[in-house]
Amino acid sequence: MDRSSSDRRRRMYAAWLLMALLPAVGCNAVAAALYVVKGTNMPADFDGLKDRRVVVVCRPTAMLQYSTANVAKDLAREVARRLSQHVRNIEVVDQTDVDAWLDEHTWEEFSDVGKALDADAVVGIELSHFSLYQGQTLYQGHAVYSLRVYDLQDGSTRLVYEKDPPEAVYPPHVAIPTAEKREPEFRRQFVAELAEQIGRHFYAHDTRADFAKESRLIQ
Length: 219
What we know:
Layout: H1 3-20, H2 22-25, H3 27-38, E1 41-42, E2 53-60, H4 71-86, E3 91-92, H5 95-104, H6 110-116, E4 121-133, E5 138-151, E6 158-163, E7 168-170, E8 176-177, H7 183-199, E9 205-206, H8 208-218
Parallel strand pairs: 2-3, 2-4
Antiparallel strand pairs: 1-9, 4-5, 5-6, 5-7, 5-8
């Protein structure tokens, strides 16, 4: 057995052992197991936004346009902010300009928005489900979305990335009583969490952060 295979075997055994201890030591064991197996940095799923002028657009389905007022704009704004912070040499078109164009024009394709605002690429978010409640007295956010990235350089329109992630649930394992916080506060938290999940498709991130957040929610 070569050295690399032996190292992988030792790491997998250590991860299995830590997972077996989870009932006794809690979420920290999961974070430790992931660190042993592959460290804490998860690479971007798509890293083609570097050195690009990018437009972020979120489009709700027709059924959501009135039931979730402003969610699409808020989500696009949060995603744009994270891309600006974490993607090297990216220029993200100001969401105020994007919103103004969307309010004044009719459009069909995400690429229409990108071309109108002189972008090199457009990140399109198709939001097909968004809800805040698990029953009448508990908050638990649920969202279903798909991602599309179009390369618009040289006048072309090329689909260069697409993803249909599983349903996003926040918090994933617990629900929050509505008596503990107001709906606008929980809505902001869920939109921020959803934006982080979307943004992570395009930049590396620390896997320990999710376990830290989950631990705080269940304390």
